[in-house]
Design goal:
By secondary structure, the chain is α/β, with parallel strands linked by helices. The chain has a single domain (3-376), classed as Aldolase class I (TIM Barrel, Alpha-Beta Barrel). Helix content is 33%, strand content 16%. It contains 12 helices and 14 strands. Helix 2 (84-96) crosses helix 3 (146-166) and helix 5 (200-218) packs parallel to helix 6. The longest helix has 21 residues, at 146-166. Bound molecules: flavin mononucleotide. Residues 26-29, 61-62, 104, 174, 177, 227, 261, 277, 301-303, 324-327, 354, 356-357, 360, 364 line the site of flavin mononucleotide (FMN).
């Protein structure tokens, strides 16, 4: 092993479990599920192939906890026992290759979709703040009622329990990117004056209640993490100071790890943030700030596809693990190649904007795959 990469290959403690290394497949909506929300064979092969390539932990793309919280036309649902067979097969195939298997759970909130066809159900948000959903299409969400808030909390708990029954090691609660939980965190999006808004404590309450419900329904052995918006990157939104203030509460509430990521879909369109995803190590300042605030396990992410740069983050002690999204889509053998000391063989992901983002609605394709995988529409076994 190349000594400089060694920090990547130390075992990682995640709650009650131990991953074989510190490479985490970061959630990435590749959308190979079917339009009814069930797991498919391409999806199973996609994730299992990344485990086979050596990643220690696989966190799936965001799976919706109910229909109101679904966004993408091919997004998987974790809402009832009918979803168990596919989820069970998915967990087993990931684990067969030696990785821990986690599901990211989301309620899309005001981004509910599928964007192109979504009209029937109420688009739920803390407050009816209008926004541009897709270029040129402005929508105004409905203010979520207290009953709907309670239903959403219940849905997260039920989904986590289903994941546990399916054999997953844990879940990653999505409180970032502008989805429902992060909308509640944001003073710009959450203008409520009841117990779910107003003060800092009011705005963080939903994330804490979801975490509590997930823990209550799954027990202490189940790994539970939070994908936390570290900074909304808007003038009037949630700031890194808020993130630093909040992260100890997540630890107290029993989270096993935090996965900080900045920005929302909208703030990414603001001039200073355009091209953020293309900047190497763009999440690292926030990760270092979180490190000052908590001793809990932190997963760093964002432009860390160079193994030497990734290892240096761990060496500095700023984070405990490295989350890779596009690098593992492009090359599922990233981990194996780094372990073998052949980083020059890693297929990299230079396109900006990424082709995977532009092809998400029908199943993400990477421009840098071998031709047969591009033709197939996914790179599995
Ligand atoms: C096509 C695409 C889909 C994504 N889907 C998700 C998702 O479902 N959940 C999530 O938390 N982040 C998602 N992300 C963000 C990634 O997890 C990650 O934060 C981002 O790509 C930066 O990491 P990277 O440089 O390793 O790709 C997505 C990113 C891309 C490009």
């Amino acid at each position: 092993m190349t000594p400089v990469y060694e920090p990547l290959f130390a075992p990682l403690r995640l709650g009650s479990r131990t991953a074989r290394n510190r490479i985490v497949h970061a959630p990435m909506s590749v959308c190979y599920g079917d339009t009814d929300g069930f797991v498919t064979r391409p999806q199973i092969e996609h994730y299992a192939r990344r485990a086979q390539g050596g990643a220690g932990t696989i966190i799936t793309e965001n799976f919706a906890v109910n229909v109101a919280g679904r966004q993408m036309p091919r997004q998987t649902l974790v809402a009832g026992p009918e979803h168990l067979p596919g989820l069970t097969e998915l967990a087993a195939e990931i684990k067969r290759h030696g990785a821990l298997a986690l599901v990211q759970l989301v309620h899309a909130g005001r981004y509910a979709g599928p964007w192109d066809v979504y009209e029937q159900a109420r688009r739920l948000a803390p407050s009816p703040v209008s926004f541009e959903l897709t270029p040129g299409r402005v929508v105004t969400p409905a203010e979520i009622t207290t009953t709907e808030i309670e239903e959403s909390i219940e849905a997260f708990g039920r989904a986590a329990e289903l994941c546990q029954q399916a054999g997953f090691d844990g879940v990653d609660i999505h409180a970032a990117q502008g989805f429902l939980l992060s909308e509640f965190l944001s003073p710009a999006m959450n203008r409520r004056t009841d117990d779910w808004g107003g003060s800092f404590d009011g705005r963080v309450r939903l994330t804490l209640e979801v975490l509590r419900e997930v823990r209550r329904r799954t027990g202490p052995e189940f790994v539970v993490g939070v994908h936390l918006m570290s900074d909304e990157l808007t003038a009037d939104g949630w700031t890194i100071k808020d993130g630093v203030r909040f992260v100890p509460s997540i630890a107290e509430e029993g989270a096993d790890f935090v996965f900080p990521i900045p920005a929302t879909f909208e703030s990414l369109r603001l001039p200073p943030n355009v091209g953020l995803y293309g900047r190497p190590g763009y999440g690292l300042a926030d990760v270092a700030a979180f490190r000052q605030a908590t001793g809990m396990t932190i997963i760093a992410n964002g432009g860390l596809g160079d193994p030497a740069a990734a290892a240096a983050v761990l060496e500095r002690g700023d984070a405990d693990a490295i989350g890779l999204a596009r690098p593992l889509l492009t090359d599922p053998d990233w981990t194996a190649k780094a372990a073998a000391g052949t980083p020059e063989e890693i297929r990299t992901c230079p396109c900006d904007p990424p082709q995977c983002l532009r092809t998400q609605l029908t199943g993400a394709v990477c421009a840098h795959w071998p031709a047969e995988a591009v033709a197939q529409g996914y790179l599995g076994y």
